[in-house]
What does this fold into?
Amino acid sequence: MLSRSQLEGAPGLAFETWDTATMAVPFVRRASARAETNTSFWWPRFTGKERDAESGNDYFGARYYSSSMGRFLSPDWSAKMMPVPYARMDNPQTLNLYAYLRNNPLAGVDADGHCPPDGPCDKVKVTIDQPKPEMKTNEKSASGPVSGPGVQTTVTITENGKPVSGATVKESPKSTDNITGEPVKAPAGTATTSSQGTFKDNVIAPMTNTPVTTPEQKAQLTSASLDAPYSHTVENTFSFTTSSGAACQATFSETLQNVNPDTMKFNDTNSNGVNFTYTHTDPVVSPQPQN
Amino acid sequence: MRFARLNSAQFRFAAFGLLVVIFASAGAIGQTEEQLGAKFKRISAFEIRPGIEVFPTFAADGNVCRLVVEKRQYINPASADFDSVIPSSLATLLVDELVPEKERGKPLSPYLSSESFVAGGASFLKKDYENVSVGMYGSTVEGRTSGVSVIVISWPKRKCISSQ
It folds into this structure.
């Protein structure tokens, strides 16, 4: 017997309304037959919901959604009496009762037409500071000590405003050389958060892996870094489990460069004597994908 | 139900038949090197230290064009090390053994290639020489291991004939 999901993917097929009482396999006919009947056909559309062929609206169970307007046609409602259904004071978007998924459609899927309860990672926040690059010498790396311009960032993870301590954070970086366009996938590393919910993360443009022991060597390295073009963007994912057991991930990208890869014009030298800049996007926290 | 008694000729025939069946099924279940070779692409590998393997790829003239050095995760039936890495000091030693300095040629720069990067617990360090490029992919699993996961030595002037 064909399942509904199998039928939904079949091109040229339309569904009549489900017989929800028996959940019987619906009567299926070719789409071309639509014009021959006056039957109101239902098509699986936005997030698998059915679209009313006459009105063009998607049926979510509790309400109809208009994909042309990007809004529900009626305000959200709750069987339990409350002043504003599903409102959350820390998120003004929850006050808009016509919005789809708090105006954040990429965050998930509305299953039934009611604003869904908080996701497991909604109250998890990951922040990364943005220190000014400097010449780092003999910094520990997996491939031995390295020296080069870079930063040591502090990553902070909180849940409900409280630090997530002792969490093992798996880092999965993919770096792209913006000058050559070559991507390099690095092996994953891990770090553990402190009692303040923080861990340190080095982002370095390594120039040498032989020890730098004298100020002269450091000065020579700094001087050489000024006219050695470097621009890398690392797409990184931090995966971790919070104290409450939520399996979350934070994705962001960070760029360390001393040159504009389009114009190949070098940056100005900063107060630390290097011409590197470090920037990153805000980490986006979401539940870890299910395997 | 009674079984008929077998005379010695019948017994020998039955035993022979049984042996044929056993050998035939052993051939079907077991896999010889030839059988595996017929099914899958053959590659070569060398063990340069216990548990550390080198996988070479060759150019048309028979010379090696790329060497990939990895540490085996399987140790024995009771254990496997999924965080297995090569300590960075050993990695340097292995590179010196596989491509001695005179074979590498002079460094193209006193510094690492601009493809190198360090991002948290992960790193990629690459050094270019006249004849070879040496890349090391490093990984740190905090509190457990830190070292080189893969070493790739390539000869850019030699064209590899297979994608291995």
